[in-house]
Design goal:
The protein has helices spanning 2-12, 16-20; strands at 26-40, 52-61, 64-68, 75-79, 84-94, 106-116, 125-136, 155-167. It is mainly β and 168 residues long. Strands 1-2-3-4-5-6-7-8 form an eight-stranded antiparallel β-barrel. The longest helix is centred in the first third of the chain and has 11 residues, at 2-12.
């Protein structure tokens, strides 16, 4: 019974990759990633980790790379013939309450990941970058809602990444 509930919860949360163990394409392994902060123009309200460490599973199907992490949906991007991967994703964070009379305020975060995996079919690691760009969503009127979170917007946070495979 508990297993059925967990499987149903996974389906509802769109986390089938982690919950059910399915990985698209051919698994490349799990990588221990370390990021070193290279830029941060958002101000004191946004305090990114430095260094930043996390694990990510990668898989590949043809010229598509899949980034699999925790219970998040798989992200994907392209790999060129030299083994360089790139993908971009965006998410909107609503900072205002949806009550009548309150202006709409939302920030769009666009993430861009670039990595050099090389041409081997079984990369032991990679180097790369991840950049986060923050800007107001179209139609936003945020007034003081950004205070304490972003000193200026648009703004950027960038990391240099290095990773080593820690499991197949």
């Amino acid at each position: 019974m508990i297993r059925k509930i967990a499987l149903a919860a996974c389906a509802l949360a769109a986390c089938s990759v982690s919950c059910l163990g399915h990985e698209p394409g051919t698994a490349l392994g799990t990588y221990a990633v370390t990021g070193s902060l290279k830029s941060q123009t958002c101000g004191a309200g946004l305090q990114p980790d430095d260094p930043w460490s996390f694990d990510v599973r990668l898989s590949r199907s043809g010229s598509t790379l899949f980034w699999l992490q925790d219970s998040s949906p798989a992200l994907s991007g392209t790999i060129d013939p030299s083994g360089n991967a790139t993908f971009t994703t965006s998410e909107i964070f609503d900072l205002s309450e949806p009550d009548a009379g309150v202006a709409y305020c939302a920030v769009v975060r666009t993430d861009t990941f670039k990595a050099a995996l090389g041409t081997t079919t079984d990369p032991s690691g990679f180097t790369g970058t991840i950049a986060y760009h923050y800007e107001l969503d179209q139609g936003s009127s945020c007034g003081g809602l950004l205070a304490g979170q972003y000193d200026s917007i648009p703004c950027d946070v960038g990391y240099d990444l290095s990773a080593k495979r820690n499991s197949p």
